[in-house]
Design brief:
There is one protein chain. By secondary structure, this protein is an alpha/beta fold. The chain contains 7 helices and 9 strands. Strand 7 and strand 8 form a beta hairpin. It starts with 10 loop residues before the first strand and ends in a 5-residue tail after the last helix.
Length: 245
């Protein structure tokens, strides 16, 4: 296992699959002048043995299930728990949020129906929810998931949900786990729609209320990408405010 980053890296981004990169998160980190690096499991880049010395840890999404028996997923969970013990804020996107739920004692299972495309979420108006998401309770965000964190970890605060997925985001101490892809970019959406998987066309027909077809998704991207990036900036700035040093 690789040694912890010791080159001045401030933020480590754990990537699972080649097609699910940092997206807008990387753009935001660059814009902030943050020293960061990404490790991609599918590309053969081993996750480090420790996150000691970092200021923040981000965990991305991917088509795998959090319950798959893959060494890199278990290592990601171990790093999440170590970050918690060291006071390092963790932010999780989709699969990353599910791994956070598992790491802290929650449960991930398939949902009754998938969410794919630009769909509404609503936060519950709590002080924690407003700190992360702002005062506006509703937002349209990008989703692509079949599983969800159906049981939250002990002590976690549920702060957002949607009609098809009651648990869209939870906060726990300095951490935030999201079921949605706030790091999404039009380029990522285009890549995913080129290889959406064999189940996607069937899901479009079976779940029209929660799965968008490609034309509808592209049109919605034009309408909602700017709002998604504005919300991402709010979320990432709140995450950064929790970094130490």
């Amino acid at each position: 296992m690789n040694a912890p980053p010791n080159d001045g890296t401030e933020v480590l981004v754990l990537q699972h699959l080649d097609e699910d990169g940092p997206g807008y998160l990387g753009q935001w980190l660059d814009g902030q002048g943050v020293r960061w690096q990404v490790r991609c499991a599918e590309a053969g880049e081993a996750y480090p043995a420790s996150v000691r010395g970092l200021k923040g840890l981000a965990v991305l999404g991917g088509a795998w299930s959090a319950n798959d028996e893959r060494p890199s997923l278990r290592q990601a969970e171990a790093l999440i728990r170590e970050a918690d013990a060291l006071g390092i804020p963790v932010i999780g996107h989709c699969l990353g949020g599910q791994l956070m739920a598992r790491a802290f004692g929650g449960r991930v299972e398939p949902l009754k129906q998938p969410e794919i495309g630009w769909l509404p979420i609503r936060h519950n108006g709590s002080a924690t929810a407003r700190e992360w998401f702002g005062d506006t309770p509703e937002a349209t965000v990008y989703q692509w998931h079949h599983d969800g964190f159906v049981e939250l970890p002990p002590g976690a605060e549920l702060i957002a949900g949607s009609p098809a997925c009651a648990h869209q985001a939870f906060a726990l101490r300095q951490h935030l786990a999201m079921q949605f892809h706030i790091e999404i970019t039009p380029a990522k959406i285009a890549d995913w729609l080129e290889r959406p998987g064999q189940a996607y066309p069937v899901q479009v027909l079976l779940h029209r209320d929660s799965v968008q077809d490609p034309a509808g998704m592209h049109a919605a991207t034009d309408r909602h990408q700017a709002g998604s990036e504005a919300l991402a900036r709010r979320i990432y700035e709140t995450w950064r405010a929790r970094w130490r040093g």
